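Bench log. Compound arrived from synthesis this morning; before running ITC I wanted a structural hypothesis for how adenosine-5'-triphosphate sits in the protein. Inputs:
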Amino acid sequence: MSESSSNPFEVAYHRERKIRRAAEQLLEDKTRLLHQRNIELSRTNERLIEQQTNMLKQEKLATLGTLAAGVAHEINNPLAFVTSNMSALDDYHNAYHEMFQFVKNMRERLSEDKTADLDVAIKKLDLEYLDHDLPMLMKETMEGLDRVKKIVLSLRNFARSQEGERAYIDINEGINSTLRLIQSEIKRGIELKLELQDGLPKVNCNPSEINQVILNIIVNSAHATKDEQHPLIRIASFAEEKYVCLAIEDNGYGMSQHTIDNLFVPFFTTKPIGEGTGMGMAIVHKIIEDHGGEMHVNSEEGKGSRFTIKLPVSLDHKEQIYTG
Ligand SMILES: Nc1ncnc2c1ncn2[C@@H]1O[C@H](COP(=O)(O)OP(=O)(O)OP(=O)(O)O)[C@@H](O)[C@H]1O
Ligand SMILES: [Mg+2]
């Protein structure tokens, strides 16, 4: 059957078929477009959910920052007077101890009934035990206060805004000076692999804050590798586009997904009470954020962890380095 046929039924049939094909084609095109749009919409939706989660996390951290500053401030005053009272108590106990020794020495010179009275009084009030136990109680209390002091300091560091002085520093110097500082933590058999790239652009940052970032991460890695047979920490520095990067990697016990998700939450710790405050990584995150940098964490339980930090190199300074 040809389209040029004069048979009106045939003509109508061909016309109808043409229209149907065009309609089918249109439907197919539209369906494809719709499918494409649907994929794009799902992607946008996923991105939105991700952004919303990030925003919530940021908001949570910002609120915690304000809270941390307030708590640190509030605790600091009572902490100061409790510490000072403790050292006064220590002096008072020294006086008490001397007096107690004196009374005991005097005992020999008392009449028999007075000696008995004295012994009863000493026993009743448990003075011997008190004299022996008090220094230990004081020592433990002082240690507890020291821990509270450290927590307050961490909270203050966490809450501190970008008030510190900034300078152009060589990140490799930061790494080396931090390593010198924590030699005692590192020296027990941990192999340290340094892969520091020479001639990196300098980074505009607060040097002591960046050193604290390096310190907190390395100390964590040292803890994580403590049960390894061949503990290894690898520290690398390198340039990547407009960033100077720092990677710290260990072959320690690694992290569960739960730990990774909560890593930057203040006070999150998996360590026993007294061993970790859970503020180390919260501080790291805050500092990197204040510097406009990025931080990436890769970790697998039982295999190890890798922390990558990217600090932006300011363009004006790049020019200074490369042209001047
Ligand atoms: N390199 C690492 N390997 C394995 N787990 C790690 C590592 N770094 C951090 N973590 C996990 O993240 C948790 C939080 O770390 P963070 O440094 O904030 O606190 P912390 O080390 O427990 O206490 P501190 O306040 O003394 O640093 C740790 O308790 C640990 O479970
Ligand atoms: Mg830590």
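What the model suggests: The beta strands are 167-169, 191-196, 203-205, 232-240, 243-250, 294-300, 304-312. The radius of gyration is 35 Å.
ITC booked for Thursday regardless.
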